[in-house]
Design brief:
It is a single chain. The protein has ten helices and seven strands. It is α/β, with parallel strands linked by helices and 239 residues long. Strands 2, 3, 4, 6 and 7 form a five-stranded parallel beta sheet that branches. Bound molecules: zinc ion.
Length: 239
């Protein structure tokens, strides 16, 4: 009987520790090592628009078109595998003057990866992006925003910043929420210095693509300007 109680207690402790680690790995505003930015404190009315995943053949051009028509420069976190599969799309992102970030090679969860595998994911994605002639900074955004020990440690050793976000309408509502609702959520909740996370590269992202012009117009009406992630970080550094 005693053994059963002891075993049950051990299980509860292990489950609690695992849950705590799981929760910690998802935090938007902190990690164990290195520099993380999820928003900045600023009095200037600026926000950064970030678009994750891709490039994809179907939806890169429509996204670029929306941004071009609105005159907005965004930050695209691309995966190395998709850049290699569709270099013309990635090239179009770069040529349009957007910032590009590293979003891993193949979008696997990186929490349990070895340092060797993390370094390979970073290195090969960097190489795929640099092969396009992109010379800007290459910040990193973890797939699913998940990071725990090894990933932040490797990033810190490479002196790289982890870019998270502070506004996430698709998670707060739903990926298939009506575009007007996604847009209203962003327009109402965004504050100066925020980093907005959106996805637009897949067929399941119809609502987000439709919301994008509404979000841009609504935030402009509130007086916000759009800057890249690096411009946002530079503003914080200049404070
Ligand atoms: Zn992603």
């Amino acid at each position: 009987m005693k053994r059963i109680v002891l075993a049950a207690a051990c299980l509860i402790v292990v489950a609690t520790v695992l849950q705590a680690l799981f929760d910690y790995s998802r935090l938007r505003d902190r990690q164990l090592f290195g520099h993380l930015v999820h928003r900045i404190d600023t009095d200037r009315p600026v926000v950064a628009l970030t678009l994750d995943d891709g490039p994809t053949r179907r939806f890169t051009a429509p996204l670029l078109d929306i941004l071009d028509k609105a005159g907005v420069t965004a930050t695209f976190f691309l995966t190395g595998r998709e850049v290699t599969a569709f270099p013309e799309g990635a090239q179009a992102v770069v040529d349009a003057g957007h910032e590009v970030g590293n979003h891993s090679w193949n979008h696997r969860r990186m929490v349990a990866m070895t340092p060797w595998e993390v370094r390979r994911q970073l290195r090969e994605t960097d190489a795929a992006i640099r092969a396009l002639g992109y010379e800007g900074p290459l910040h990193f955004r973890p797939p699913y925003g998940r990071k725990l020990v090894v990933l932040p440690w490797v990033l810190a050793r490479q002196d790289r910043t982890t870019i998270m976000w502070s506004v996430e309408p698709e998670t707060d509502l739903a990926f298939d929420a009506p575009p007007q609702d996604l847009a209203a959520h962003v327009i109402e909740t965004t504050q100066a210095g925020d980093i907005i996370l959106l996805h637009g590269m897949y067929s399941g992202n119809d609502s987000s693509r439709a919301a994008l012009p509404l979000i841009i117009a609504g935030l402009r009406a509130r007086g916000f300007d759009f800057v890249t992630v690096s411009e946002l970080i530079a503003l914080e550094a200049a404070r």
